[in-house]
Amino acid sequence: MPHGKSVVDADLSDWEGNHVRWHRLDALYYGEPDARDVTDAKFSARWNQPEGKIYVAVIVDDTDDFRTEGYGPLREGWDDGDRIELLSVGDAEAATGWSTNHDVAQEYVVGVTPAGDSWGTWGTGDPLHPDTELTYAARIDGSKLIYEAAVKCFDNYGRFTGEPTVVSKLGPGKIVRFDVIVNTRHQDGFGMRALDDNGGRWNDSGKITRFILADE
Predict the structure, then answer these.
(1) Angle of CA points 136, 151, 165, to nearest 5°
(2) Core-most of 61, 142, 154, 160, by most CB within 10 Å?
(3) pTM above 0.90, yes or no
(4) pLDDT given at position 35
(5) pLDDT of amino acid 97
(6) Sequence-distant (≥ 6) Cβ neighbours of residue 166 within 8 angstroms
(7) Comparing C-alpha atoms, which of 199, 171, 196 is closest to residue 91?
(8) How far is CA 173 from CA 22, 57, 135, 168, in A?
């Protein structure tokens, strides 16, 4: 994952050029096949040392549109609309086990309302705390859903457990874990797209994809 920074505004002009690497989200991770719904999905990511954040851009070509006003608490309606999940682990070596306290790994959900506004929550649907510093934006471009976000990296997030919150010290050569999962509702059901079909990322942080941070 290269070093860099972006403006989180869902305008992906700063993600253009040959130096940007896109990762295809073409594996059926969960649910029903949706080849007639999501015809293409990809993401690109870069990390920023001073801010301790990972910036991510996601493009989903979704021809069967199911947008919602938000995402209810305790995963109510977790499969009722189109959205993305962002999973982050600042210390890849500590990625063993996981639960909804988001201590070792953090899971966020970002979506677009029918009016085209963006919303974000924890993976449980609960409201975010300001100290997560998650910023996000989303918009509609024809059949495409465009997302952009900045994710703060934590070695441990202690808001729910009472343990200390430890912000990751990012630098070249450090290994982090980071994933994007596309959630899509379609006429025939619900499906999820990811880099691969290795399921269970939501409760096993050891399955989240590893990235080596590069200074290029």
Answers:
(1) 130
(2) 154
(3) yes
(4) 64
(5) 73
(6) 90, 154, 155, 156, 158
(7) 171
(8) 20, 22, 25, 13
Which position has the token pair 């199911």? 66
Domain 12-212 has what CATH class?
Answer: mainly beta
pLDDT tens digits, 103-117:
899 999 999 999 889
The SS3 call for residue 38 is strand
In whole angstroms, what is the distance from residue 159 CA to residue 132 CA?
10
pLDDT at 28 over 70: yes
Cα separation, 187 vs 197, in Å, equals 22
Q: Is the pLDDT of residue 149 over 70?
A: yes
Residue 211, CA distances (Å) to 145, 163, 177 in order: 25, 26, 6
Radius of gyration for the chain, computed over Cα atoms and rounded to the nearest angstrom: 16
Six-digit token string for 54 = 């990972």
List the domain boundaries for the chain.
Answer: 12-212
Phi, psi of 203 (to 5 degrees): -135, 15
- 5-25 average pLDDT score: 93
* The pair of three-digit structure tokens given for residue 70, joined into one six-digit string: 């938000």
